Amino acid sequence: MNILVLLAILAAFLLLQYYSRSSKIIYIKKLLLPFTFSLFLLCLVFFSDTAVSSAKKGLDLWLNIVFPSLFPFFVVSELLSMTGFVRVLGVLMEPVMRPLFNVPGCGSFAFAMGITSGYPVGAKITSSMREEKLVTKAEAERLLAFTNNSGPLFIVGAVAVGMLKNPQLGLFLLACHILACISVGLLFKYYRKGSIRSANGSSAKLLVRFKSEMVALRKNLNTSLGEMLGNAVRNSMATILAIGGFIILFSVLINLLITTGCIESLSALLGYFLEPIGINKDLITAVTSGFFEITTGTSMASKVSGVSFSIQLSAISLIIGWAGLSVHSQVLSIVSKTDISIKPYLFGKFLQGIFSSVYTLIGIKIAGVSMTDYQPAFNNFNSLLTLQWNDCLTISGIGLGASLLMLVLCMVISMVQIILAKGKRLRS
User: Fold this and answer.
1) What does the alpha-carbon distance between residue 50 and residue 237 come to, in Å, rounded to a whole number?
2) Which of 70, 403, 83, 365 is nearest to 237 (CA)?
3) CA–CA separation, 416 vs 411, rounded Å?
4) Residues 188 and 173 sit within 8 Å (Cβ to Cβ)
5) Neighbours of 398 (CB within 10 A)
6) Is 227 helix (H, G, I), strand (E, B) or coil?
7) Model-level pTM?
8) CA–CA distance, 246 with 232 (Å, rounded to integer)
9) What are phi and psi of 24, to 5 degrees?
10) What is the DSSP string of 334-345?
């Protein structure tokens, strides 16, 4: 079966719906979802081997990579939120986050954890902050647009080492990715201008707020540790299981799209416009796949030949910045319990993909990297799935420790600045 057969099924389905209605009116919008699900079910039947093998790959990816990588971040973020640490951090980081990104100081928690952990930790923390009324709707949408990012484990471990066989590129790609997300945050400062606020209060008021939050923190610490830990684990497991379901679903979906020729047909359509300007057909196919699923797209882009090194690496950065519909579906499921709109987030990820690609091109030009510098390393490291469970857990722990240390240092620096500012004001 190929794409022509699937189109024939589509035509037959629409004709059946047409003649089943006495009014001869087809409500395409209402039929779209039922037809899509029916077509997906038919593909599962006719391409059962592809569906089973891709589901197994998705399950392995979730169990061996995603679970040990993200679960510690989810649990710790839940515990820190329950104890009131996020509120204390918000008071101290207000003078930094408000002028730069027009979000409360607690947004620094989502920003730091999102950079060091990976998708979709930033979305989970932002959603929790909105549920606790720590941020307004507009602030949550600004925050979500730039704090949900790919982590070092994927960029350095999976892409640079596992796919490109060149670990030296990992930190470069990660730097471009972080710079791109910061650029998006700076732009989204002006999103919904009517809700822009200045930094909250003088140093004296901030110090008073800090003391009151510390009192609340001590009260929260009197709560049973077992109760807090149990709630944190239960909430984290529910989120991580939902993420696993999306990973498996989109692993099946992207492989079915490739098998049925849908990706190839869409790439051919895009190639009609892009190939005349010198863009490789295989690269178009890789980016098209990355539009749906980040791992498949980056893997395909890393294997493209016949293109310059800078273009290939820029395409990979574009895919990483965009993240794919698989990640966006996870984010949608997380924020669905709140009033956060997904549209600003999608626009932010689109901008982040563009920025990542541009920064990669600029970085390569400045550094003078050429194709001759692109020497493979670790040739036996062929896949993301070769990473071991304990390795992912170790890397996750290191990232978690680094993010917490960064937050503590920022808190100390902010507190010292507030105290010094208060002392200077009193002396004057």
Assistant:
1) 29
2) 70
3) 9
4) no
5) 13
6) helix
7) 0.80
8) 22
9) 60, 25
10) HHTTSS--SHHH
